[in-house]
Specification:
Chain lengths: ~300, ~280
């Protein structure tokens, strides 16, 4: 067999292989995109024909009303989780990536924190919700409350933020760190001004996932936030709070068509919120990464 | 090949100029190592180095890969201190004071002893922000002053005309050589006395290398440069003094011309003639 034949054969083989893998990727894309589009279009088709803007400005009443309490409640919960879980998660990620080193005895530190976070990530959300109910709502006499919901949701999403932050920081080239050190920057200063800036897309992605999970949760909220038709006030405890996922589920299980419409409206608003989160995070990343190595 | 530069010692200056010399009254050796041993864990990398670096001169460190040049260089601004297995014995004196003395502040040590790396490492921020990154960190200048600092330093490294219209662009769109000059400007901006350079041109093409070398030559005698290089031609063109490391020992050091043309040690002779390396 000549070399030329050999080469021709291997070219043909490579071409077939490449086509095969291309087909596989397209299939995978279809598997992800299909259900997402189906969901989006399905909800929009059901919600839009009966859409009334008053949904945004009125609270539930009888067999109709609006979702203002739930929209505001979900937004408040989102902001709260962003602050609480965002701070905790990013700090834990920074700690694990930057300050956990091999100690003098050659053992890695931070094992406890890392294990705790892994365990937390494995907890079913309904179990966390129940723990919150027993410990916070009943144990501490907080009743159904915003704070209990924030704490439980934050515990739930902190692992995602921590992992994303740690991974992103570990991927920052040593050259940035050493450059910062060699200029005489304090460790924390170099971390903030140089290293975290480079890691930002990863951190933002982690926050985005965390918030998307937050927006979509129901079970832990049923246990901790309760439900109310009142608009959110600034009370952290002794006061339940409304959220959209509650209405998606309960109103759909009611016999009245008017409540089914509300259920679809709540779904649509949730989807819009998640999409907005996605867009906002992309904008933030694009804005801050204008000077990154990957964007030339 | 260019002839080697003659070294400028304070004594050779005009006496009037000598009195104006801002460095008068300070030790002639800006940096000095005394019985320096360096090791990672149980592996000794450098042993028994006694050497002084004359203020305002360029010293080249040459030697085969793994001979401990980088380790030696990175010790001088304490970049190795954070490596957990790193151990040092002996002393490094900066202006006759130990760099490990408790009175020495690590951050100001690094401001006084700057560093340029093998691969250009601009930060992920605009060109202008890169130049002033260190200046901001040390609070040396702020607000409008920063623009002045940026322009001055960019002019100093000959980059101003190339970047003046895109100060707010990404530094990664610059060529490799320009990026290295930008890093040089960034290092110069904090006003170092000594600059450590670890193979600063080995990632660059010949033209960029020439540009960087030209810049470095202009920086003495205001600055003291210590340059690790793989490129023997560069050592010859650039430096006043050359130190030859082999297998963790400082085999020979002396004026560059002498070390290359009339080395005392057989190992040096073989290395500069390309027989080992
Ligand atoms: N962080 C480190 N940990 C352990 N050994 C190291 C470390 N850095 C360098 N060494 C070792 O020190 C020796 C000298 O390396 P280096 O100073 O980089 O040499 P050069 O710059 O002359 O090529 C090498 O054997 C290298 O493996
Ligand atoms: Mg080296």
């Amino acid at each position: 067999m000549s070399l030329v034949e050999d080469a021709a054969r291997s070219t043909a083989y490579r071409r077939v292989k490449s086509m095969f893998f291309r087909a596989l990727t397209l299939l995978a894309l279809a598997f992800v995109l299909g259900p997402a589009l189906w969901l989006l279009i399905g909800v929009a088709v059901k919600a839009v024909p009966h859409w009334s803007w008053s949904v945004l400005t009125s609270v539930p009443s009888g067999n109709g009303g609006g979702l203002e309490n739930a929209i505001l409640g979900t937004l408040v919960i989102m902001v709260g989780v962003l602050v609480l879980a965002g701070t905790l998660g990013v700090l834990a990620g920074v700690f694990l990536a930057e300050f956990v080193s091999i100690n003098a005895k050659g053992k890695e530190r931070g094992v406890v924190l890392r294990t705790a976070i892994d365990v937390l990530a494995g907890f079913p959300s309904i179990v966390l919700g129940y723990v919150g109910y027993v410990a916070l709502c009943v144990g501490l006499h907080w009743g159904f409350s915003l704070l209990a919901a924030l704490i439980i949701l934050s515990l739930m999403v902190v692992p995602y933020i921590t992992k994303a932050t740690e991974t992103a920081l570990r991927q920052v080239p040593t050259a940035y760190r050493e450059g910062a050190e060699a200029l005489g920057m304090r460790t924390g200063y170099g971390l903030r001004k140089v290293v975290l800036r480079a890691a930002l897309p990863g951190v933002v992605t982690g926050l985005l996932i965390a918030l998307s999970i937050t927006v979509g949760e129901t079970a832990p909220l049923l246990y901790t936030a309760g439900i109310t038709n009142d608009l959110p006030n600034w009370q952290l405890i002794h006061h339940p709070i409304g959220y959209l996922t509650y209405y998606v589920w309960t109103d759909w299980n009611q016999p009245m068509a008017s409540l089914h419409y509300i259920s679809y409206d709540a779904s649509l608003i949730l989807l819009v919120m998640v999409l907005s989160l996605l867009i906002v995070s992309r904008v933030i990343v694009a804005r801050t990464q204008r000077h990154s190595e990957s964007v030339r | 090949m260019d002839e080697t530069r003659s070294s400028t010692t304070p004594g050779s200056l005009d006496p009037v100029l000598a009195r104006l010399d801002p460095d008068r009254g300070r030790p002639a050796q800006v940096l000095e190592t005394v019985g320096l041993n360096l090791a990672f864990g149980s592996k000794t990398v450098i042993s028994g180095v006694n050497i002084g670096f004359q203020r305002g001169t360029i010293t080249a460190l040459i030697g085969p890969t793994g001979s401990g040049k980088s380790t030696f260089l990175r010790t001088l601004n304490r970049m190795n201190d954070k490596v957990y297995s790193f151990r040092h014995e002996g002393e490094v004196l900066l202006d006759a004071e130990s760099i490990w003395s408790p009175r020495q502040d690590l951050l100001s040590l690094r401001r006084r002893v700057g560093m340029l790396f093998q691969r250009p490492n601009p930060f992920p921020m605009s060109i202008r922000d890169n130049v002033v990154a260190g200046v901001k960190a040390h609070g040396i200048a702020r607000g409008k002053q920063l623009d002045v600092v940026a322009e001055t330093r960019l002019r100093e490294v000959g980059l101003w005309d190339a970047v003046k219209d895109r100060l707010h662009d990404s530094p990664y769109r610059l060529s490799g050589g320009q990026q290295q000059l930008l890093c040089l400007a960034r290092a110069l901006a904090v006003g170092p006395e000594v600059l450590l350079l670890d193979e600063p041109t080995s990632a660059l093409d010949p033209l960029s290398t020439e540009a960087v070398e030209a810049m470095l030559r202009q920086m003495t005698p205001a600055l003291t440069l210590i340059v690790v290089t793989h490129n023997l031609g560069q050592a010859r063109r650039l430096s006043d003094q050359t130190m030859f490391f082999y297998d963790g020992r400082l085999v020979e050091h002396g004026p560059t011309a002498q070390l290359f043309d009339a080395p005392r040690e057989a190992t040096t002779q073989r290395y500069v003639h390309g027989l080992i390396g």
